[in-house]
Each structure stands twice: as C-alpha cells, then as structure tokens.
Amino acid sequence: MRRFMTVTSAALVALALPAAAFAQSSGSTDFTAELRQANNSGGSAEAQITLDGNMAEITLTGDGFFDGFPHAIHIHGEPGGDNVCPPAMNPGEDGFDDLASQTMADGTPILSVIDGAAFYGGVAASLTTEGDTSPDSALAVERFPTSATLDYQRTIELPEDVANDLSSLHLVVHATDLNGDGEIGPVEDGDGNQIPSSLNEDLPIEATAPAACGQIVAAASGGIDTGAGGTATDSSNSALLAGALALGGLAAFGITRRRRAGEVA
Ligand SMILES: [Cu+2]
Predict the structure, then answer these.
(1) Domain ranges (residues) in the chain
(2) Which strand (E) or helix (H) includes residue 208?
(3) Does residue 161 or residue 227 have the better pLDDT?
(4) Exposure check for the chain: N or C terminus, fewer CB within 10 A?
(5) How many A from CA of 4 to the centre of ligand 1?
C-alpha cells in the first residue's frame, strides 16, 4: 500500500510539473514605470507592477516630493486609449506655456491636474494606502502617502479593462509646492487672486497639481530593453479625446470640473 501511494504521488508530481511551469511563465506579467517631475516638483519615482489576472502587486518608490501633505497617486487613462504624459511637464520646457492654463504672479506657468488629464486621461485607479482603490477615492486625502519619500506597496484588484491594457496607462503623483513657500497652500495669480484646484475650487491648486508622471510599460523579458515608448503622436486629436475621457472620469467621481474654452490645445 505504501509503495502504491509513493508511485502515485510521484506520477502526480510529474504530471503537475509542466502545468506549474506554464503558469509561472504566463500567469503574471511585470510592468515598470519611471515617473519624472512635473511643475518642477523635484519629485521622481519608479514603480514595479506584477499583474496576475486582475490583481496588481504595486511597488512605488520615490523621493523629492513635498513633505507633509497627501500625495494622491493614480493610474490614469482610458484603457487602450491614446494616453501620454504631457509632452512638456515643467516650466522652461518647449511647449509648456501652451499646455499650462494658469500662471503664478511671478509669471511661472502651472500645469494643473486638468491640463495634465487632457493628455493622460481620467483616473482609472487610486493607489490608496487602504480601502477602496476605485476612481471614487481619487481625492481620498486621508488615505494617500504624505511624505517626501514615497514607499508604497500594495496589492490591489484592478478593473478588468484596466488590467488588460495596463501598458496604455500612466502613473501620476499629485501635490507640489508650486511657489516654494514651504506649504501646500494658496498661490496667487498676476491679479492677486488665489488659484484654486481645477478639480475642486475649495482646494488650492498646489493640492492637486501633478508632481510626477510616468508611462506604465511592460517590463523587458530576457534582458531586452523595450525603450521608453509612448510618445505623443497626434497631439491635437489625442488631447481632445483624452480631455473628453477625463471629463467622463471626473464626472464619474463627482468632482466639479472647471475648464475654459480653448484650454486644451
Ligand atoms: Cu491623478
């Protein structure tokens, strides 16, 4: 009897091996993202995502961000859509003045969250530290990291369409001290008026302005570098499309949207 069991177990193990090997090679997919600063935030980050079905194990590390205010972190974009990080993300970069809808009193243009969403799309998932991770939690400020150094690790379930098209999407970190006054607070425009967040006029623009953006790319396998990829192609059409999608995304989580005509170009 004992001999019979041993043989059977060995046979089962032998049968199981190819299936296990198959699952290992095709059951999960790795992605990376390099987030570079926006609005001269000084913040940068890198992320690794291991996707198994709809479950995403996300690690995001970064530094140089504002210390002491919640940094909303989102996966942005319409799955399968033509999403990009803004082609210019910082003052002084070519074209930035045309993308930025607001200007500080000293003349420095600001890329607002809506300006950015015209390119990278609406919120697809919220990288909260606990609880809900849907777009409903896009501004759940009590559940986002608040330090200059980001050390985020969480496994979350993504909507199926987001999981299926992860490499068409982007990671964005929000909140930056635009005027360098040492706090996330009021910023005045040239007329001495405080500039509100383009998402919520009760918040200062510093609370939601993009601080870093990076494209999610499928990780190279076998040591082959896939390159950065994902640059803007048809800027006018993609921006308008992404803007429309962002509108839907923002409406979906109940945030009043304020956009002037011609803001997206
Ligand atoms: Cu966001």
Answers:
(1) 27-252
(2) helix 205-208
(3) 161
(4) N
(5) 60
